[in-house]
Amino acid sequence: MSDRLRLHxxxxxxxxxxxxxxxxxxxxxxxxxxxxxxxxxxxxSADRLTQILKDVTNIxxxxxxxxxxxxxxPHGASVTILIAEHALEEPVNTEPGPGPLPETIVGHLDKSxxxxxxxxxxxPENGICTFRLDIDVSTCGMISPLKALNYLIHSFDSDIVxxxxxxxxxxxxxxxxxxxIDHEITSIQDYLAEDTKRRYQMIDVxxxxxxxxxTKMLLKEFDLDNYLFGITKRxxxxxxxxxxxxxxxxxxxxxxxxxxxx
Length: 262
Known about the structure:
single chain
């Protein structure tokens, strides 16, 4: 909708974005798996995640009220930021389209919260390690959390990305008519940058009558060296490399399709 909506009172709509990434790796020995977990814990510490969420808050146009963060033992981290409306002289841009990339952060939010949690894990039998990170952005009013998508995608090394976006509640126009969504959207893909669309295979499951949108992304390119921790393809036999690649691809497909491939 290009024209600004004329509402009766405050915009009570709640827009929620759930953004989940998976990073897959092969670590051959117990020592390498432990080193991988330590590497992930250091790379995605509470301090770094706090900065990423501050950037997200800035992108969607918010003001930080409170920050709670925690690094866990033996591994993992969580950060929660409470946010509030930031007064602006210019109206917020709520038009559909890609948001900024990491190098082009612009600023200003509405009351709600941004959270992140990490889940590093590994399996001793096949050596595959799967790191999961969940980010939830919830806002009220005219500002869309979708504006932060491209920054988030470019902030992490992601093999699989799953995204859920939902608009809940209703607001009223000046004539008292209920509005259950205040912007046009056909897919989360409408908000993704072109380079992201080229790099990932994507599928949608959208329930338009419920204002519920779901997109999954699977990285197209596969270079085994990018998935080996502590070794390279030159360190293993051709047969071993083929076996590892098969296991990694299976892991990625099972996560992407949300089922075991027996």
